[in-house]
Amino acid sequence: MAAQEAESPARRTRVVDDVDLRLLRALWMDGRARVRELARELAIADSAVSVRLRRLRERGVLAGVHAVFDPAVLGLTTQALVGVRLAPDISSPVFEGRLRTMRSVLGAVTLVGDYDLEVHLACRDMVDLERAVYELRDAGAQTTHTQLIARTVVGLGQALLTEEEPA
User: Fold this and answer.
1) How far is CA 23 from CA 20, 39, 41, 42, 156, in A?
2) From 3.30.70.920, 3.90.1150.10, 3.10.20.30, 3.40.50.300, which CATH number describes the 71-148 domain?
3) In the chain, pLDDT over 90 holds for what percent of residues?
4) Are 95 and 140 in contact (CB under 8 A)?
5) Which pLDDT band, with edges at 50, 70 and 90, does 131 fall under?
6) Is the pTM of this model over 0.85?
7) So where are the chain's domains?
8) What is residue 119's predicted lDDT score, i.e. its pLDDT?
9) What is 2-58's CATH number, 3.30.465, 1.20.120, 1.10.10, 3.30.300?
10) Contact (CB, 8 A) for 118 and 108
11) What is the layout of strands, in order, in the sheet containing 78-86?
12) How far is CA 86 from the centre of its chain?
């Protein structure tokens, strides 16, 4: 029981201090920032930044730094969120494995509610979107509900890294 408690997200949150939060915030703004740049911004030694980054990775606080790209640059101008209810004979892990092989899938989340998953698709056009939704059905979706994305709101998530506790 104590080992499980030590690894819980609540326990990890307590081991992140103000400097770690500032470091995470700086990485959020520029995931490619070099250790020297981060050290200068935080007014601490390069070695201290390196130690903190290693510790944050080891504790699972910093799971990775990823590139964010605009799918439209690749000609994928039609995006949609598709609510998926799985067929009774398809498990979520099996369906998730199939999603990994689908070219149009940008991401997915599992849900508790009306749908089992929500899948983010990026397609060339409406014909390509229709093909992608059929591919979801072939993979085990019993029903789908498609919503076109008009615009993506950017710059969200930074408030998670503030020192203030939510009200």
Assistant:
1) 5, 9, 9, 7, 17
2) 3.30.70.920
3) 69
4) yes
5) very high
6) no
7) 2-58, 71-148
8) 98
9) 1.10.10
10) yes
11) 105-110, 117-123, 78-86, 141-148
12) 22
Task: Round the average pLDDT of the chain to a whole number and report it.
Answer: 89
Q: How many CA atoms lie within 13 A of 2 on its CB side?
A: 0
Cβ 118 vs Cβ 84: under 8 Å: yes
Give the tokens for residue 118.
């929500």
How confident is the model at residue 9, as a pLDDT? 54
Percent of the chain at pLDDT exceeding 70: 89
Q: Are 118 and 109 in contact (CB under 8 A)?
A: yes
Q: Which amino acid is at 6?
A: A
Angle, CA of 122, 101 and 87, to the nearest 5°? 90
For 137, list phi and psi in degrees, rounded to 5.
-65, -40
Does the structure show a pLDDT above 90 at 157?
Answer: no
Task: Give the C-alpha separation, 98 to 86, whole Å.
Answer: 12
Confidence at 165, pLDDT banded by 50, 70, 90 = low
